[in-house]
Amino acid sequence: MNTSIGIVGAGILGRLLAFFCVKQGWQVNLFDSGSPDGRQSCSHVAAGMLSPYCELESAEPAIADLGSSSTYLWQQVIGELETQVFFQKEGSLVVAHTPEQGDLERLHHIVADYTSDPVVHRMDASNLLELEPELNPGISRGLFFPYEGQIDTRAILSGLNHYLTSQAASQVVVHYHTPVNHIAPFVLETNTQSFQYDCVVDCRGLQAKTDISKLRGVRGEIIRIQAPAVQLKRPIRLMHPRYPLYIVPRPDHHYVIGATTVEAEDFSEISVRSALELLSAAFSLHSGFAEARILETAVHCRPALDDNLPRIFYQNGLLRVNGLYRHGFLLSPKIADLVVHFLDGKTLEAEFQHLMEEV
Description:
This protein is an alpha/beta fold.
């Protein structure tokens, strides 16, 4: 059994892995070049949709398997924290304007082929207005996924930081503003010191490109707004000719509007075209967004491998966990759970063994 773990990278995956390691009774050192708020991580930009079945539109079934397991783990994690974290499990909607309505039917067939469980329901205009009374009545068709939800990404980053630095301080040492220059089996090195552990786990995301050559960055863009005239209750995805767009409601009439995938490793500010598309999409769903106030625009790049599936690369004394793509918050609890099981010498569930890759 491993008793000391060095984790590099304090995005959502690194923090959750530290959390689960503490639950095993292990000693943990967590390193990150950024600050406690995680602002430098792509986790800080994410919308936090927990939508394993919606993702089947363009993702492999393994994403839905991991994501559905993670939703239940999220509830356990939040229950252990002293800080409040907004977590919602009231379902999500996928809607489309007339030109894209064929995509809705295609998604319904994909989900029905994946599982016979009632995880998706066709909705007509009246059904949609029962769920979301303020939705544009011109939206005539949609799909409702009753078991999906969302989590406040920045609140959970903060809550996990509080847990690791306060509640579990006897087992965890967190090193923020501490770049790690070298990672090897059992060893990691900073500018000033070398550390030895029973195992080192690399959770650096795109910062690991020098060690994982097939990583690429996938750009994500969000706009955070406050819209007092809008009362939407749950995450809504809008089918779009180029890429799906989403609106995620938060307390106090705050909304996160974003694009799930832009194939470019580009950290520059949001473009006029993207901003117009995001805001126009929101307005097409609810005219009240016209009077919303823009609070923030943000951009980051998520780490992805060639098949857009996560991977746990392993050798004795070193694991590199990466490639969560746009599914960081959806997958991280289950990925962290798998890593802990592997480190503890336990057999992983058969459906997830293909994510392990020996170096």
